[in-house]
Amino acid sequence: MGMSGLRRKSLSALLQPNLMGGDKMRKLLVGFLATLILVAGVTGAQARKHKPKAAPLPPIVVVNINVSRQSLALSVNGWPSGWWQVSTAGVGYHTPRGTFHVQRMARVYFSKKYDNSPMPNSLFFDGGIAIHGSYHIKSLGRPVSHGCVRLRPENAAQLYALTEQYGPSRTQIIVTD
């Protein structure tokens, strides 16, 4: 008889009443096995909850904003897709620098802070700071905004459509000096 057969026979013998301690031993073993199964089940459930996160997918739409040049370079799937003049923060205001993702989108939006100014096709990337269309196209190429990145309305609509198509999490915004 192999070792596993011996274990099975011993376990079944222990579970029989009136052998090796009778009902007390049986209840003790049943309780122990139930606890073991419960602990194993909880551990398994916890392990399923804490699966390692998959690496984020790389961006498809990359928006490079160069503050010193007052320009925006757009690429889609690694291919250059546009170069536009922008207007970033003027004196006394600040356009944040760094790498961002779109936090929220609004096709139609009016500034609650600055005289209900229209901000069509807004892509918010740092709190209330957004890339958006502006009807003050004569000021594009100069830093005059309150911190947002202003574009021609048709360029903002194109960028909004791309972000909508590929998703905010696949759109990366890089703002440099």
Structural features, described:
With 177 residues, this protein is of the alpha+beta class. The protein has two domains: 3-49; 61-176, L,D-transpeptidase catalytic domain-like (Beta Barrel), CATH 2.40.440. 31% of the residues lie in helices and 25% in strands. The protein has three helices and nine strands. It has helices at 3-15, 22-49, 153-166, and strands at residues 61-66, 71-76, 79-85, 98-101, 104-106, 122-126, 129-133, 149-151, 171-176. The radius of gyration is 32 Å and the shape is elongated. The protein starts with a helix and ends with a strand. The model has no long low-confidence stretch (mean pLDDT 86).
Q: Indicate the percent of residues in helices.
A: 25-40%
Q: Find the CATH topology of the largest domain.
A: L,D-transpeptidase catalytic domain-like
Structure summary, number of beta strands: 9
Give the helix/strand class. alpha+beta
The biggest beta sheet is recorded as: 5 strands, mixed
Q: In whole angstroms, how far apart are the ends?
A: 79 Å
What gyration radius follows from the Cα positions, in whole Å? 32 Å
- What is the H-and-E element order? HHEEEEEEEEHE
CATH superfamily membership of the largest domain: L,D-transpeptidase catalytic domain-like
Strand order of the largest sheet: 3-2-1-9-4
Shape field: elongated
Give the overall pLDDT as a whole number: 86
Percentage of residues in strands: 25-35%
The count of helical stretches stands at 3
CATH architecture of the largest domain: Beta Barrel
